[in-house]
Specification:
single chain, alpha+beta, Glucose Permease (Domain IIA), two-stranded antiparallel sheet, 12 strands
Amino acid sequence: MRRESRKQERSSFKTLIYVSGSIALLVIIAFIIGFIAFSNKIENDALENGFSTSKISDLVPNTIKNETNTEEASSSMGKTVNEVQNNVTNNVVNNEEEHETKSYSNTTSTSAGANTTKNDKETNNVDEEKNTAETSTNEEKTEETENNSQEEQTEDPVFGVPVEGEILREFAKDKLVYSETLQEWVVHNGIDIKADKTTVVKASSNGKVSSIKNDPRYGLTVTIEHSNGFKTVYANLLTAEFVTEGEAVEAGQTIGTVGNTATFEILDEAHLHFEIIKDGEYLDPSIYIK
């Protein structure tokens, strides 16, 4: 019995020793871990606060520099009173010379500016006089041109009767007239003046013969150009041997004779087909004939 109790005591003691050792080991390990973590925290805090090794090393030269500056300041304090007075005198003289130089420069600049302004004014006055003269010249030229234009502008021609007779068919530009030859209603860009064959046809106004042709519709036709874009047309002629193309004619001059050559009006009585045109537009001859 005693042996068994002793064995139990020994085993309990061993168990206690093992447990105690394990606890102590855990405590040691925890201490080591805590120490390492604390050390890292201290280093991190130091870095965050800006106390790095490089910055600490920079503080040393600054201290040396400060000492050097202090020595230089001390040595500068050792200057004599005469040296200080000489420096003050030189500075005063230099300031006076600079002031005189600036004053002279300002005076020169002012004079140059005044001369420049005067020259600019004189130049502007010359330019204004030149522009005024040019304007007057241009106005005179414009007036002369207008006067010349007015003098050159001629009055519209006065038209006379190319042949005496009754009007068979009136002007019909905006309405229709009946054609016996065509057996239909048509426009009529002139007037038909009744006259016997071989009746003399005269120029209605002064002008120039622009064409003499045999028109397929209106037969033998003479066209005369007048001033201001007017033209007269004489159609259904028998002859036109009294004038030539390009010839200048006067009002009342014979240009041909009445015939019956217009195919579009061949069934009508003998007559002169007469037209007046202004810049390509057909006009009513009965309004313009005087």
